[in-house]
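In the previous chapter we treated chains in isolation. Here, by contrast, the input contains two separate entities that must be folded as one system, with a combined length of 224 residues.
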Amino acid sequence: SAVISQKPSRDICQRGTSLTIQCQVDSQVTMMFWYRQQPGQSLTLIATANQGSEATYESGFVIDKFPISRPNLTFSTLTVSNMSPEDSSIYLCSERLAGDYHEQFFGPGTRLTVL
Amino acid sequence: GQNIDQPTEMTATEGAIVQINCTYQTSGFNGLFWYQQHAGEAPTFLSYNVLDGLEEKGRFSSFLSRSKGYSYLLLKELQMKDSASYLCAVLDSNYQLIWGAGTKLIIKP
């Protein structure tokens, strides 16, 4: 299994500010993902973090709102920009080994509340 | 569009058996996953099915019928710690996971 750490684990932020979430994995995985899970809802993929290049965003998510960095194979950041209460959610980092679709691992999540 | 359906909530008794169903309509199919998610925690992997049939792993079993677009997760000898949400997810033709909304399982003594 994989070990994924995220920080912060939770935060309460003011409207209009930005928060950067960090994700560290313990192996040189190829695929890293960022998900959002709003209360009582399913996981929604925000983007795939690509090493050394721009992330691949899913429909409904844009780089200006959710800039993502992945400077190396084991580290990625997600920034939630110009936050509003609608951004209150759990943000999850996830990893999968290249070519191995049998298992995908998740970090502990960052619980964000925007006031 | 892509769609995964599972019941919102189920209740069962400690020591009993419960079956959580999942039906899917996706663009392509490269496998179906079941994850367990306790409140406030990250999802953890339970099972993966890509061929029809039943996969047994201890108290948990997962079944797949690709022709029917149907899967179920069977939990036996239920324990209080099994109270959690159970998420069904399908790997589509682009190898992206499509997630169901999850089934909240409540275990009563």
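Chain B touches chain A through 20 residues (CB under 8 Å). Residues 33 and 78 of chain B are 20 Å apart (CA to CA). Compare these points with the single-chain example from earlier in the chapter.
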